[in-house]
Structure of 3-dehydroquinate dehydratase:
Amino acid sequence: MTFASVLVLNGPNLNLLGTREPAIYGSETLDDVARLCRDAGERLDLAVDFCQSNAEHQLIDWLHAARTKVDGIVINPAAFTHTSVAIADALSAIQKPVIEVHISNVHRREAFRHHSYVSAVAEGIIVGCGTQGYVLALERMATLLKNRAAK
Ligand code: CA2
């Protein structure tokens, strides 16, 4: 029995996870990450919908649809983190808790990765914990949603 549903959204090029740059992103594929999230969802009684797109408009359309369908959003916006006011606006408009995830420690990398448009609309941010960051984000989301339900 699930008590809430969470959309796990992934931005551009994350479909290539596990195919190169293992020193930065590890060797797991996006399918492996989807499996980790579904397993975490079962353990936490969360229904998990896991999606990836390379297109900004697709990510925004999914966020708009999520408004009436999900209770929270875990998002790795990938490079759109550093460029997209549109994704930040969509996240803000849907008024659901957001946890931002980055596999790598963006603060140890190039300066252009240090700023995130999404962080200002996120309840929490998990950075540099590898793919485990997605599981940590779902754990945090379960806590937030349980606390909200209890109020
Ligand atoms: O660390 C993260 O999770 C990032 O969101 C990943 C993005 C990057 O632009 C952000 O600054 C930080 C890049 C996603 C592309 O991932 C690939 C992984 C392996 C091979 C090719 C791309």
Residues 13-14, 16-17, 19-21, 25, 76, 78-79, 81, 102-104, 106, 113 surround CA2 (CB under 6 Å).
